[in-house]
Amino acid sequence: MAFEMDFEDIRRSPATTPSVDLGYSRQSFAAVSVAEFIRHLGYHAIPMGNDTALSIPLAVNAGLGELGRNGLLITPQFGPRVRLSKVFTDLPLETDKPIDIGVQSFCEVCRKCAKHCPAQAISHGDRTANKLTRSTNPGVLKWPVNPEKCIKWWMKNGTWCANCIRVCCYNKPNTRFWHLMHKIALRLVSRKSKMLNKLLVWIDDNLMNC
User: Fold this and answer.
1) Is residue 182 within 8 Å of 90, Cβ to Cβ?
2) E strands of the chain, at which residues?
3) Helix, strand, coil: what percent of the chain each, to 5?
4) Residue 209: exposed, middle, or buried by beta-carbon count in 10 A (0-12, 13-18, 19+)?
5) pLDDT in tens, 122-142
6) Distance between CA 72 and CA 53 in Å, rounded?
7) Structure pTM?
8) Measured on CA atoms in the order 177, 182, 185, 187, is the torsion positive or negative?
């Protein structure tokens, strides 16, 4: 399950962003509520937030979005501006499949999250299946982030940091105008053209920086 965080609040990063805390509260409440509903149906259900299994790989496999350079789930609707929770259950369910909306090819040329990361914890290079630190898992082709650098910056900053969410081209306000622009951009990104993606990054930097 993915829960949107407030766009205007995230724009304040790396200052305090209360919507991050609110996102954690919403995800916990929803997971517990869904689990309780499933139990009333007669099945087992265990609600979970960030603990017990990694939420982002599960969300990718469930088709909620793709894995971005910033190590976060990039959703078609809100980009990386979401918090995730999950419910483990033996309730028979129809499974979804991963989606391909062009995030991987776009992240190859964008690099905005890496440029604006104050901790420089996000890779500027190519994807790799190798292990970066003791906190990253090998064996999956991705851009590994350095969580040790990230958490050290959080401690130095004294609050959250959401720069990699704030600057992401997929992160746009949920208004009629931006919904239309975002829909058009998603169609163009799905073509996976390197030159076109570079043009879209330039447009986002110079004409659509909201």
Assistant:
1) no
2) 2-4, 45-48, 66-67, 73-74, 82-84, 86-89
3) 40, 10, 50
4) exposed
5) 999 999 999 999 998 899 999
6) 15
7) 0.91
8) negative
